[in-house]
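Much of what follows relies on a compact textual record of a protein's fold. Think of the row as the fold of the chain written in a discrete alphabet. An example makes this concrete, so a full record is given next.


***
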Amino acid sequence: MEYIDYYKVLGISKSADESAIKSAYRKLARKYHPDLNPNSKEAEKKFKEINEANEVLSDPEKRKKYDKHGKDWQHADEIEKMQQNRSQSQQRSGQSFGQGSYSGDYSGDYSDFFGSMFGGESGSRSKQSKFRGQDIQASLQLKLTDVYKTQKQTITVNGKNIRLTFPAGIEDGQVIKIAGHGGVGVNGGPNGDLYITFSIENNTSFKREGINLYKTIDIDLYKAVLGGDILIDTFDGQVKLKISEDTPTNAKVKLKGKGFPIYKKDKEYGDLYVSYSIKLPTKLTPKEKELFIELQKLSKDDN
């Protein structure tokens, strides 16, 4: 396996913390995402490298193995176990296996390592060991209107099309695990898993916070003072609201069950909170000004 400098792929230093890794990954994933670079083999290759680098460096345990063993990080446990067994055998026998001695971290090929430790025959047997495939990190960009209802999508991973069902209510930044759709296992070992991180773009006038939605609507001064009915848009159609007399600005009403779907809970929804913003009349006619002046006088008389 060819060595890939994951730090270089993400454009970060080896001392980068978790936040820097996450920020670099999201920036590059958006830049090279296949949806934004259709028919670009170079972008597709770069996108795979970015996901692979993030999959390793965002996991503290995997990152530690990668920093120590480089391209052989996936076999770190086997390598370290063999090193330990060899060290114990040397202590018992007072001599080293094969010719010469071995110390420190191994930097050669994994297959060469086993061969040098135990000779050709044992090395051949080691090559037949089963290893789990690598997990794959991918990102998927959707609009808020896309995740209001359960939908099916086909995504391409390692050149393979996978038909998946995404439940309604997925949140921005949520990660979903698809078991067995990661890297292919070695020598018949199990496949790795696919982890999809969702990036949700709000393409609506609603503000989403978890399962609840928020919306501010304008009402005219006359409706606020005298009351009346208005039609407002919700996510799934219009509803009629009754405005009470003397409604103050920023007054809020809750529409139960008119919020966002609750993830993996069929036909269960959050709430919609509607705030009123009173819109003052402008460009008054002479008659309207006269009436407002009269109202002002009446108000002073009452006080």
